[in-house]
Design a protein that fits this description.
This protein is mainly α and 154 residues long. The protein is built from six helices and four strands, in the order H-H-H-H-E-E-H-H-E-E. A two-stranded antiparallel ribbon has the order 1-2. A two-stranded antiparallel ribbon has the order 3-4. The model has no long low-confidence stretch (mean pLDDT 87).
Length: 154
C-alpha cells in the first residue's frame, strides 16, 4: 500500500511545513533551545531583520510553538519561550542538524552535542520500531486502519 500523495490534508507534513517551512523558524527555535527569550537577543544573535523576526515569532506564537509572555523583571518587555509543542520539535531539528553536519561543509568540528549527564555525544537520531530496532526506509510500510480503530502508533 502506498500513501495517497494528493491527500495533503490527511498528512501532517503540509501542516509542519506551514508552521516551520522556512529557514528563520528553525534558527529562531535553535536560539530558543539555547536559552534566548528576548526579541533583542534573537535579533542581535541571529542577525535577522526586525520585521522578519517579528513575523516569524508571531507565526510561531500563533501556531502554539512559542508563547509570548510579559517579562517578570520588566513588564514592558516580553519573553518568547518554547511551549511543549515547540519542545517536541527538538528531535526533528536534531535530525536535520545531524544530516547537515554529515553532508554539509561548513560545520564546526570542535562543537558537538552531548548528554549533560555523562558528557558523551548523543547518538544519531534514528527511526525505531516499537521494540527499539533501528529502521531504514525500506523497513517501512503503510497500513490502513479502520475508523476508530486503536493503533500503537502515534
Amino acid at each position: 500500500m502506498r500513501e495517497p500523495l494528493r491527500e495533503l490534508t490527511e498528512c501532517g507534513l503540509p501542516h509542519a511545513l506551514e508552521v516551520m517551512g522556512e529557514r528563520w523558524s528553525f534558527l529562531i527555535l535553535r536560539a530558543a533551545f539555547n536559552g534566548l527569550v528576548h526579541f533583542e537577543e534573537f535579533s542581535s544573535e541571529l542577525g535577522i531583520a526586525r520585521n522578519i523576526l517579528s513575523n516569524r515569532l508571531a507565526k510561531l506564537v500563533e501556531h502554539g510553538v512559542m508563547a509570548r509572555t510579559p517579562c517578570e523583571a520588566d513588564r514592558r518587555k516580553v519573553e518568547y519561550r518554547l511551549t511543549a509543542k515547540g519542545e517536541d520539535l527538538l528531535p526533528a531539528m536534531l535530525a536535520l542538524r545531524q544530516w547537515g553536519e554529515r553532508y554539509g561543509t561548513l560545520t564546526n568540528p570542535h562543537l558537538t552535542l552531548v548528554d549533560a549527564k555523562d558528557g558523551k555525544p548523543i547518538a544519531p537520531i534514528a527511526m525505531r520500531s516499537h521494540d527499539g530496532r533501528e529502521l531504514g526506509w525500506h523497513d517501512l510500510a503503510w497500513k490502513e486502519v479502520g475508523a476508530g480503530a486503536k493503533t500503537d502508533c502515534c
